[in-house]
Amino acid sequence: MFTTGSINTIWIISFSRKKQSIMSTELGQTILCESKLKKLFDLVEMLKCFQVVWLDEYLQRKDRFSKEIEGFICTKAGLIDEQFLDHLPNLKVVSICSAGFEGLDVSMLHRLNIRVSNVPHLVSESTADLTFALILATARQLRKNIQSSQHPDLEVRMSPQFTSLGTDVTGATLGILGMGSIGYCVAMRATGFRMNTFYYNRNRRPKLDEDRVNAKYCRSLDELLKLSQFLVVSVPLTPETENMIGHKELALMKPSSILINVSRGCVVDTSALVEALNDGKISAAGLDVTEPEPLPYDHPLVHMDNVILSGHSGAATVEVRKKIFKQSLENLKAGFTSGPMNNEL
Amino acid sequence: MACKQTVLIWEQLERFNTVDLNTDFTVINVDTFFSNIKQHLNDVEGIILTPMDISKFLNCVDISSFSNLKAVSVCGAGINGLDVVELRKRKVRVSIIPQVTAEPTADLAYMMMLAAARNLTEALEISKKGSATIDAAYSKLIGRNVTGATLGILGMGNIGYCIAKRAMGFRMKVLYHNRTRRSQLDEECVNAKYCNTLEALLKQADFLVIAVPLTAETRKLIRQPQLALMKPTAILINVGRGSVVDTDDLVEALQNGTISSAGLDVTEPEPLPQDHPLRHMQNVIITPHSATATVECINEMNQQAVQNLKAGLSGGVMNIEL
Q1: What is the distance between the alpha carbons of residues B72 and B80, in angstroms, rounded to a whole number?
Q2: ipTM above 0.85, yes or no
Q3: A230 strand-pairing partners
C-alpha cells in the first residue's frame, strides 16, 4: 500500500501515535513525501530512517495516515493550504525541497507551531549554467542549426552562414534583471565571454561585488531594457514582479535582442512575448519557466525556431538534486530534534 | 585610365555585401566564372573564398591553370587542401584569417557543452511532443553540472586558449594537452594544468573539447582505445576537424555507453549522409560547421579578406600571409 526503501516492521509496531515533541535523536516518524521525488532512486534510500507515505497515495486515502504524519518533504509548497493542514493535526515540520515556495502562507504554519524550511542557495550555480545554455543556444540558433544539419539538401547542410546564422555572445551587452545569487552567478560566467554587463535590482550591490563581475548598475528598468542584447530575468516572483515584462517593456528592447527567463513564468506576460516575437520586437527567447507550465504542445512558443524551452530544469543536475535533497532531509531531521535548519522560513 | 584588376568572389562575400569591391576591381562571381572559364582563367588576378569553398573549387578547377593569378585571400582560418607551396612557387600570395574565428568557435564549444550537459535537445523534443510534464525536470531532463567539472582541452592554440578563458567563470578545473606546453604565465592566466600525455587528459575529463587543426599527427588521434580511457559520464565536443576522431569508433562508444554524449560541429565525412547513425542518436548534437556563423564574425572576416586581397594585389602587407 505504501512503499519505502526497506520496511522495518519493528518500527511500525512500536510507533506511538501521541502528539509529542521529540527531543531525542530518534527518528522513525511517519512523513509525507511528494511523489515526484520517488524518481530520484538513490536518494529514496536515504529516507529509510522514516516511514514514508507518498503524496499521491495519501491523497487517495487521507484518513489512513493523516494523524500519523509528522513531517512533509515537498517541492511545491503552494499546495499546503488550510484545508490540507486540517487533515494533518500532528504535522510538525515542512521541509521544502527547493528554493521557491510561492503560494505558501508561512505565517499560517507558524501559527500552528509548524517549522518550515527551504533550500535557497544550492540552485544558483546550476541555474546560472542553464541560463548560459539558453543564452548560447538562442544566440547561436541551436534549433536552426540542428535542422540545417538534418536537411536533405546538401547545400543547406554545408552553409550555416546562410541558413542558421547567429550572433556573438562574446563581447555582447548583457542585462541582468534581478541580481540575487542567481543573477550574480550569471554575471560571473559572463566575464569569461568579455560581456558588457549591466544590472537592475531593487537594491544596488556593493561596489566590491560589482567590480568582481565587472557589472554596472542601471538606475531604471527602462534603461536596462534599451541597452541589453541579452536580457536575463532572474527575479523572485512577488506581487511587484508579476507581469513585470509586458508589451511596454518588450517594445523598449532592441529588435536584435534575446530574452532569457529563469525566474518564474508569470514574471513575463506570455501573450505579449508571443506578439513581440512575431512582430520582430525582439529576436529570440530562451525560457526555463513559462506560464502556463508546461506549455500545451500546440502553443505558438513551442513551435518557433527562435525559442528554446528548457522545461524548468535550472536545478536539474544529478549533483544539485542530491545536494538539495540531502539538505532538505537534514532540515527535516533538525525540525524533529529542535536543531537549526538551513534555511528556516 | 588604369585597367581594373579582375577578382573572383564567392557566395559569402556576395551575400553579405558590406564591402564594395566594385570601385577598385572588376568583380565576377562563381556563375560568371564558370560561364566563360577560358577567358576568366586568364583575367582573374585575385580570388576571395572561404575554407569551405576551397574544396568545392579544387574539385572543379586546377588552380595552376590561372595564368595571371597573383593573390588568394582565404576568408577563414583553414586552407582545406589548398597547395600553398605550389602557389608560392608560382608567386601567388596566399593569406588566411586565423584570429577572428577563435572566440565564436569557443562560444560554440560552450553552447555544445551546456546543451549536452543540460539535455536541451531532449527538453525541446519533450515540449514538441506534448509529453512535457512538470516532473520531467526530475527524470528525463536531469543532467550534469558544468560548474565545477573537469574540462579537458585537446589543442591549446588560439581556440583552445579562448575555451580555457571561459572556464573560470564556471569554476571548472582546466586541463590541457598540446604538442608544446604553453608558458607558465599563459597557464596561470587561465588556471590550466598541462597533461604530459593524451591518456592523462582523457582519463580525467568530464568534458573533452577537441580544438586541434588537422595534421598528419592529429588524424584519427581519437580512436577506440582513447575513447575507452574516458569516463562513462564524459561528454566529447569536437570543434577541430572531423577526421581527428574515428567516426565508426565514436558511434560504437556512444552506443555502448563508453562515453555519455557528443556535440559535433565537424564530422568525417562532412556533411554526414542522411542515414548515418550519428544523425539518429539522441545523445548526439550535430551542427553544420557553424563555428564562425555569426553576423559579426562573417562581416569581420569579409572585411579582413578584402583588405588582404587589396594588399596582396598592391604589394602591401597581408594579415596573415602564408
Answers
A1: 13
A2: yes
A3: A174, A258
Q: Radius of gyration (Cα) for chain A, nearest Å?
A: 23
Residues of chain B positioned with their CB less than 8 A from the CB of A294 = 127, 132-134, 136
Instruction: Indicate the length of chain B as a whole number.
Output: 322
Are A195 and A229 spatial neighbours (Cβ–Cβ below 8 Å)? no
pLDDT tier, A8 (very low <50, low <70, confident <90, very high otherwise) = very low
| pLDDT at residue number B126 | 86
Instruction: Specify whether B241 is catalytic.
Output: yes
Which of A146, A149, A173, A258 best tests the B interface by mutation, with the highest count of B CBs <10 A?
A: A149
Question: How far apart are the C-alpha atoms of A287 and A291, rounded to whole Å?
Answer: 10
Q: Got the DSSP string for B222-263?
A: B-HHHHHTS-TT-EEEE-S-GGGB-HHHHHHHHHHTSS-EEE
Determine contact, residues B287/B262, Cβ cutoff 8 Å. no
pLDDT of res. B105: 97
Identify which of B236, B58, B41, B249 has the alpha carbon closest to the alpha carbon of residue B151: B236
Segment B246-268 mean pLDDT: 97
Which of these, A107, A306, A309, lies nearest to B129 by C-alpha position?
A309
8 A C-beta contact, residue B235 and residue B259: yes
Q: Please give the single-letter amino acid code of residue A80.
A: I
How far apart CA B202 and CA B105 sit, in angstroms, is 21
Tell me, yes or no, if B219 is annotated catalytic.
no
DSSP state letters, A208-240? HHHHHHTEEE-SSHHHHHHH-SEEEE-PPP-TT
Task: Find out whether A131 and A154 touch, Cβ atoms under 8 Å.
Answer: no
pLDDT in tens, B210-246: 999 989 999 999 999 999 999 999 999 999 999 999 9
Q: Is B279 a catalytic residue?
A: no
Distance (Å, whole) CA B7 – CA B228? 50
- Tell me which residue has cell 536575463: A232
Which stretch of A4-8, A170-174, B95-99 has the lowest confidence by average pLDDT?
A: A4-8
